Amino acid sequence: MNKIFKSGFITIIGRPNVGKSTLMNQLIGQKIAITSNKAQTTRNRIQTVYTCEEGQLVFLDTPGINKAKNKLGSYMLMAAERTLNEVDLILWLVEPVTYIGAGERYIIEKLQKVRTPVFLVINKIDKASDEEVLKAITAYKDQVDFAEIIPVSALNGKNTDDLVATIFRYMQEGPMYYDEDMVTDQPERQIAAELIREKALRSLSQEIPHGIAVVIDRMKERKKQKIMDIDATIICERESHKGIIIGKNGAMLKQIGSQARTEIENLLDTKVNLKLWVKVRKDWRDSDLLLKNYGFDKRDL
């Protein structure tokens, strides 16, 4: 008798910087979603796929749920909230603290209205004592009718196997949605753009990263050579930001390019010739046309 094959869609939600992308990368064993300690790291829904003998789990990493400050913020909020009623399971990531702030209250309100089962996943237990984790569970456990409460460390993988096993218990018999060797539905161009943006986020000062986007202008493999030529543009909102991104004698842009190139080479398993430019597009985060041009089209949600 054949074993039942289970499958389903799981969305990962939470405030910015709680470790959603780190958890997703850990679960599928490969870096797909970019990570940094700055808000707005994830801007689009990113789907990754975990396949094993038991079944297939499709994870959606969503932008952090925060009140919107501009049109880009509205797009990100819509991308995150749209998933809640469309999936089989919701993982809500929180940190092991007892303080429940306005951001968490906003998420609690949303979760109280959904019919989808919700797991409370307390992340970053590698940075907290058992007592702190227990206090966090006590603070959160009655806020929403949670199906499960599971403490994990997305960074070092602690308890993530238990999390996957528990997720499968809630999945129904279903088809294989993606080929078993597929780990993401993101086009290589998009992942390359995101890896460049990650390096910029990590290298630049706190104020600038919110206002940058990365566009791949050209991505082409050289004939008969294992080299990928990539031309990309970093979009920023002010001339002063452009100067900081380029840096003295181009040093900052070189640093971003060199770090991004290494990761893109690992992703594509080929040599990469990466050229970066910087352009100013004032207030692009509030322009419907520019948002659409840079890959943030509400019709795609």
Task: Please tell me about this protein's structure.
- The chain has helices at 20-28, 71-81, 102-112, 130-140, 160-170, 188-203, 239-246, 251-268, 288-293, and strands at 6-13, 46-51, 55-61, 89-94, 118-122, 148-151, 172-173, 213-221, 227-236, 271-280.
- 34% of the residues lie in helices and 22% in strands.
- Mean pLDDT is 82; it is low at 33-44.
- It has 301 residues and is an alpha/beta fold.
- The chain has nine helices and ten strands.
- It is globular, with a radius of gyration of 20 Å.
- The longest helix is centred in the C-terminal third of the chain and has 18 residues, at 251-268.
- It folds into two domains: 6-173, P-loop containing nucleotide triphosphate hydrolases (Rossmann fold), CATH 3.40.50; 188-300, K homology (KH) domain (GMP Synthetase, Chain A, domain 3, 2-Layer Sandwich), CATH 3.30.300.
- The strands form two sheets. Strands 1, 2, 3, 4, 5, 6 and 7 form a seven-stranded mixed β-sheet that branches.
